[in-house]
Each structure stands twice: as C-alpha cells, then as structure tokens.
Amino acid sequence: MANRNNRDNNDNNNKMTLEEAGRKGGEATSKNHDREFYEEIGRKGGEATAENHDREFYEEIGRKGGEATAENHDREFYEEIGRKGGEARAEQSNNSNGNGKMSQEEAGRKGGEARARQRKNNNSDER
C-alpha cells in the first residue's frame, strides 16, 4: 500500500497545475498569433456579447466598474485623467479649426463638477 501511495504522489508531482498549463498555452498562442488575431477574436467576442445582452447588462457592469474604480483611486487620480482628457479634447479642437468643441478648461471644470456631485450623492446615500 505504501508503494502505491508513493507512486501516486510521484505521478501528481510530475503533472503541471491548471494554472501552469494555462500560462504555457497562452505563451504558445501569443508566439503563434499577431495583434490582428487578438483584435479579431475580441471583435467577435464583443459582437456575441452584444447579441446576448441588453442595455441593462451594460449599465450594470459599467456601474460596478465605476464603483470599483472609485474605491481604488483617490482625488488625484480623477484630476489626472480629467487633465489628460481635457488636453486630448483641446488638441482635437485645435486640429479641427474651431468647430465649437469645449475648451480644455471647460471640460476639466465640467468633469470635476460631475464627480463632486457623484461623491455628494454617494455620501448622502450612505447616511
């Protein structure tokens, strides 16, 4: 009986875990495929998801993602992404010959006001 247990343990010790098998498979796949392959399977997956889910599904995952982001980031994070977004928006506006898009300052101000309202509403809901 002891020999059988030792043999079984040795067999298990020589097998790779699911995690290791998945990692190795992913590495092999990435060596054999290019960016376009991943874009294509991502597009197909997105289309399949869109066919199988409604607006409420996307609202729910967006809400959950927003809550998780808010829990993991501070005010500086939102200031930074607001600044970057404002800069990108201003660059678009500068390149589009004044087509009526809002300025970087206005975009930052509006984003900050919206975030402040959201935090105020969340804090009043918790009371």
Automatic annotation (TrEMBL):
Compositionally biased tracts (Basic and acidic residues): 1-10, 17-90, 103-127
InterPro entries linked: Stress-induced_KGG_rpt, Stress/Virulence-Domain
Biased composition (Polar residues): 91-102
Top-level division of the source organism's lineage: Bacteria
Annotated region (Disordered), positions in chain: 1-127
PANTHER family linked: CONIDIATION-SPECIFIC PROTEIN 10 (EUROFUNG), PTHR36569
Protein name: General stress protein
Biological classification of the source: Bacteria, Bacillati, Bacillota, Bacilli, Bacillales
